Structure formats: structure tokens, C-alpha cells
What does this fold into?
Amino acid sequence: MGTPRARRTAADVEKVVLLVDEHDDDEDDNSFKGHSSKRTYHHLLLLLPLLALGYGYINSWSFPFPSPEPLPPFVQDGIKRCAEISRPPPNLRDYDASRKRSDRYVKGTGAVWLKNGTVWTGEHHGEEVLYGADVWLEGGVVRKVGKAGDADFHELCREAGDADLAVDEVNLNGAWVTPGIVDVHSHLAVDAAPGLEGSDSTNSLKAPILPWLRSLDGFNTHDAAFNLSIAGGITTMLVLPGSAGNIGGQAFTFKPRWTAENTPQSMQVEPPFVINDEDGWVRTKAWRHIKHACGENPLRVYGNTRLDSAYDFRRAYTEGKKLKDQQERWCAAPKSQSEPFPESLEWEVLADVIRGNVKVNIHCYETVDINDLVRISNEFQFPIAAFHHAHEAYLVPDLIKQAWGPTPGVAIFANNARYKREAYRGTPYAPKILADAGIRVSMKSDHPVLDSRYLVFEAAQAHAFGLNFSEALSSVTTHSARTAGLGHRLGYVRPGYDADIVVWDSFPLALGATPKQTYIDGIPQIIKPHVVDKPAAAQEISREGNYDKEAAEAVESRGDPDLRPKKRSGRVVFDGVAELFVPLEGVHTAGVPSRVVVDNGEITCVGTECVVDQAEFTAIDLKGGSIAPGLISTGSKLGLIEIAQEASTSDGKAVDALNAPDLLDGLLVRAADGARFGGKDELFAYEAGVTTGVTSPISNNFISGYSYSFSTAAEHALEPGAIGSTAAALHLNLNIAKHSISTKLTLLRSLLAGNDLKASDELHTAFAKAAAGDLRLVVATSNADVIAALIRVKREVAPPLKLTVIGGHESWLLADDLAKEEIGVIITPSRSYPFNWNTRRILPGPPLSHHTLPAYLASRGVTVGLGIAEECDARLTRFEAAWAYAAAPDVFSKQKALDLASGNLAELLGLNSEARAADVGFVAYEGDVFSFESRVRAVRAPGRGDLDLFV
It folds into this structure.
């Protein structure tokens, strides 16, 4: 009887030892409602010494009985698995200030002494800023943060010298320093750039429930976006599978730093499984991650309605719970088992979710979807890390707090909305509303939906529209790190934390802020960075915008506020005008305008000598602001589409003019005939200073048809000024896959030459006018080889042709030829990214290249405009022009930068001919027109005699 007793005690002790971990639970991230594991865990800690003593005492007895039989291998293996599944949730207190070396340390990495920086540490709820501070990086971690001249830094320097360790001393001259940017929602390396069919591993399309898949298995280390993201300060990203199905698979955290091994596993941060020489593939103490999705994506891909999706989630979690219960029953009496430990490749991760060991990231937009998952989390008792996209989260913060366990975070876009019905109620004020409600907000990229290189721009927009600077910076650092389960080592400039640091050329939330250098694990990542000197004003902490009224309206209207202007006046006097960018005829101007008088929609007087009867005029103080031309938006289908994924809200696709076997059916579609007015994107754009849209027909055809210009303020097509031109330019598309490029260009040659093709008179007439230079031809392409072929066609067939390239991301390779032939370029979108093979040779701009694409083309004499890709981005047009100015002040004055989105576009889109004079109106801005802090206060829309007031 003694031997069984001794064996049983030893097993019990072994189980306790394996159960007990040396770390404590984090009260914020790892405590769950109704969960007593923490208390039990502490009791086990107290019992451990007694159990160990007892086991040692009993084991010392001498027994006359034979030695016990060894446990069968399957039981031994099962006991190890019991230890794994019984471990408490991963802990966020693994590291502290005494940590001197990272697990990701690269042997031979020197120390870095960053001197005299302005350091945003992330401490004190993001409010701490250290001026004139030094930061010491060594061993892959932050070793010291403090004031310049601190004796500790010199001691560290001496120690490094004694250890024969190189020290790179960098004088920052006051430059801003932050923790590395953490992207909590990325598809980088699974949706690799340039996009090719052979490298797309974003989604599996086998079934809506696929928890057993892993993004790690499709992580492409050759993604061209790695260096671009690093150039935006990205140091860590949570790479998720796509959202085609309800459970797309498991996600993993990575750093984009190149490693000597150059494998996906070597780029992981705290991998949940590692290869161990003794045991093979083993579970670590790190968090796991999984991707869920609900709403319209599973509906579109699999036909799963919300009813189907909710059932599929519950069915899947029933399997996970069943496996969890089977495993725990086995572990309750491992030595009495006759079968191996219960395993399931398909459902084991869901069992681990229910145990609280997996961060659950849920793609959910609408209230109904969020509510479904909150209920399911309570039914199966698992915590949710964050709701992603979550366009309606700002309407239901109390619902989010009802999720089981700690309150989930929310990971959202700043602007990207209305592309489908469940995104229709998105608002730029959501980050502020959620933060005020006590919800942890992270801004995210959904890379490559948004280029993660510009993730800080998302935080900057959130700040501009109401989120305070500490929360805005935290939304891409500390909050995102915590949401990803890495808040114990990332998200702060703090001793013991990973040496992931970004040095900026300006305050990180300033418009156009760009890294001077990005350090990952203490290693500088940008070789010979190109830096733009920014003015002193760009270094200052900006105030958040005051949009309390607009935010309240968004909530009160349940996400569908009336965006139409509420006030209007034909007679306005603007005081405090610092800059006037509107060309005037017959109006005397000299020096600082100070005062501008508008009567019946026209500027009638400029200057301090202007005298008006205040009783007859509406007075607006622009507080050092400016009056500029209304901006033009082009490149998207603004004015033809309200919700891109809802066919009934758009004009529909134009007929194919290359319709085999007849080749040409002669139809030349006019976008104006499908015009749609009063949409949210038009109205958001209008109140942001965009007065005119120019849009070509919705088409996947080579010959798209005629574009039209329209007022973003108009409510219907017959309103005065609603439509400016019904046939502004003729648009062709060389990006479509149907028919070869050579076939399309052969046809273009023939049409421009007036060859006798089987085509309608209208089509021949249009191309004859284009060949003579009487009709602007706008051709969509970005590939340099295709652009070169277009240049040859113009030279050989139609030298007078007025040609515009839209897209144009490789056009810099041909800048001199474009200038010589007077071919303009509308860069769309305005900041380049290698989306596909035809855009892979981009000019990235600082810090990777001296020039941006707009600046380089303009410096070579090319007329340049800026376009957008999606309708929702129209409201950001001014910011894009400001970005071009901030990145190249030696090339663009403010006037020239504004021309990129106004006068230049009017010319490049055919709006400046005598028959179609462009009327884009004008806009009055309070504050610097190129500052996030400026606001539109009044707009005179095309064709109107009065102004809409936003005061």
C-alpha cells in the first residue's frame, strides 16, 4: 500500500509544480468574471513547499515492495499536455526594468545612445513628455531613459567600452521619440506586395469555420511592404487571416525586421509554439491569437446570413467546449486512462480560447453583430480581445462592456467607411466617443487596405477630430500593444522594454510626420535616411479638434446625421484673413488681406480699408486663416456610387465598347447620365472644402466613356451648378486584364489615326477631337512600360493630343519625356504603394528616397494632380495636398500644393477649355489651411450666389 501512496503523492506534486507558474496574473488583462483561478493559483503557491517536503519525506522511506512499473508513454505525454492546458493565462509582468537582454537580441548588436530628444514615453496615461532626454538602447532593450548628462549614461558608456561594445551616439537635437508603432490588425506578408496570385494567402475559401488554419503558414518574407512599413515606424504587427469566413484561423505577432534566418518563425514576437530539441514542437507561455468575422463578408463569400453565422459560431464553440471537458476529465485521473490524451487538430484552439489563453480578435461592424458575439462570449465564457472595424461601436459602448471577462478594446479606421452597408454609419468622431466612454481604442491599418506605413496618419486624424494627443499616440502604441497581449514588453519607452523606438521629423501627430529612423530590437532599420527639415510649428503638440457638437449629433442620430449645411448667407465679411489663394479679377489686393468681403457669392473687396455695414453682413473671424479655391476630387466613383457593395446605390457598370466579335458597338457612355447626389461621401467632402467632383463611368472596359464634373453640395442634377460639364474628358483604362495591352494600344492608334473601323460616328468623332487636342484623353495606368508606349503613340500618331495619365506610380522613370510631350499625371492614390506588378517600381519618398513622386514629377516640369481611390477619401483631399507640401517645401509653395488638388486637376481633367470653364467656388478656413487644426467655416459652391456656413 505504501508504493501506490508514494506514487500518487509524487504525481500530485508533479501536477502542482506544472500548474503553478512563477508569475502573477495581470488584474486588467487576465482577470475574468466569475473566474477563481487567481485565488486557487495563490493557494497552490502556498501549498507547494509543504507538498514538496511531504513528497521528499515519503520518497525517503524504504519499501520491501518491487519498484513501480513506469507509466506508459501515452500517459507521460498526456501528463505533459495536462500541464500545458492547466497553465494560467499568459502574464503581462514577465519583464521589468532590470531586464538587460531581449530574447530577440542579435549577437554583435552595438549600443545606441540617443541624446537630447523629446521623448513621449507612454507613461502616466500617455501624458508624459520628457524634454532634452536621452535614451540608451542595448541588448535589444531600453536600458535607460533620463535627462542628458545623467551619470548613469556615462557609466553605461564605460561598461560598453569595457565589453568592447560599439556605441552609436546620436544627437537628436530635440527630435520627437516614441515607442515603435504597433499595428494590431494587419495582413502584411499574407497579402504580400506586389500582389500576385501565387502569393495570396489571406483567406482560405474552403469553409466558413476554419480555426485550425494559421497566418504563420502563409507569411511571405519577400513582401515588398516590409521596408515601407518600417519607414512609417511600424515595429510590430498582429498578422491576421482574412475575414471571408466566420473563423478564418489563428493569427501571429511579428516584427518586420529582417533576420539572418529569414524565416517567418524567426520574425515572431513571443511565438506560442517553438521547436525544442528535447520535446520537439512545444507550447510556450505566450498568448495565442485567433480571427473571427461576422456580418457581410461571410454572407458575400459563403451565403452565411447572420443567423447562419451565429449558429456556426455556437456549433464551433460547442466542439471546443466538448474537447476542453474531455481533456479536463482525462487530466483529473491521468494514470487510470487507457486511451491517449484527447486531441483534436480542428478544435483544440477553441478549447484554449475558452480556457482564456487566446486573444480573440473579431471583425464586426454593426450593433447586431457585436451583440451576437457578446452573447456568445457569455454563453461559452471566453474573453474578447477586441472588436475590429467596429464602425458602430461608438453607438453601443455599454454593450461592448457586457462581453465576458475584461472589456474588449476596439480597433478602428479613422476615415475608411461607407464602402458597404455595415460601414455606412462610420464617423470620424468615433475614436473620441469611444475613449470618452472608457473603451481602449486602437487605430489599425488592415494592411494593405490601408498602407500600414501611414498608420500614424490614422492616429493623427483621430486627434484632429477630437481625440486628445495622449490617447491618439497610445492608440498606435500602448493600447495596441496591450490589445495584442504584448503590453509587458512593447508600447512604452521604458527600461526593460524592447528597444523598438521611432525618431520623428516632427510631432508624430503633425500632418506628414515621418520617421528619421526606426529601431527594432535596438537595430537601426533605415539605411541613410532622407530627412526633411520641418518648421518649429510642426514640432509642437497640437490641440485636439473640438467636434463635440458633431460627435453628439452622430450618436443622437444613431449614426446617420443630417450633413447638409444648416446656415447660408450671400453677404459675408471675413476678418483675420492671413492668406488669399483665390485669383481675383478687378479686385485690388496688397499685402496681408486681413479682411475679405463677399457679396452675392463674389469677393468684392480685400484689405483693411474694406468698410461694410455690419448689420447687413455675417461676420466670421478666420483667426489667421485663409481663403482658397474649392478642391477637386477625382479617381474614385464619387457621384456615381453611395455604397460600393450595394448595386442599387450606384449607376452600375457601363457597356463594353470592345464587344467581340463586332469589336466596337459604338456606345460612348456619359457618366453624367448616372449622376447621384446627396450622398454622405459628397457631403463629408463638401464640409472639408471639396466643392467639385470629376468622375468617369463605372467600367471594367478599355473605353470607359466621358467623365463629368459636379458640385458636391448639390441635392439633384437640375440644381444650378450641379453639373458643370457632361463630357469633360474621354477616359480609357489600360489596367483591365481583358485583352492584351498591345491589342488595346493598337486599337488606340487606329482610332486616333481615324482608320475606318467598324465603329459609330460618335466614337470616331470623339477620338478625332482627342487627336486634334480638342478633347482631353485620360488614360488609367501606372506601369512605366505602358506609359512609354502611350508616349510613342502620341509622338507617332497624334502630337497635338492632350494626354493625362491617371495612376502613374511608375511615371517618375519617364518624367523628362512626359514633360517634353506635355503629358500630365494624376497620382492616384496620392501616396504610392506597390499594390501589383505594374506599380512595383515606386518612388517611396522620405525617409527612403529624397523625392516624393509629386515633387519629383513637378521638379521635372510635369503638371501633377492628386487623386483618390475610394469615395470616402474625398474628404481628405486637403490633407493629401498638405502632405505633398510638408514632404517637399523646396518644390511646392502652399499655392502650388493647393493647385495639385484644384487648378492642375481642372487642366488635367479637361475643365479649363473655353467651352467648359471650371467653377470650383472657394472655401474659407479658420487657421492654417494646411494644419490639422484648421476648419472650414464657409464654402461657396459652384453656381451659387451665397455661401454655406459651418459655424
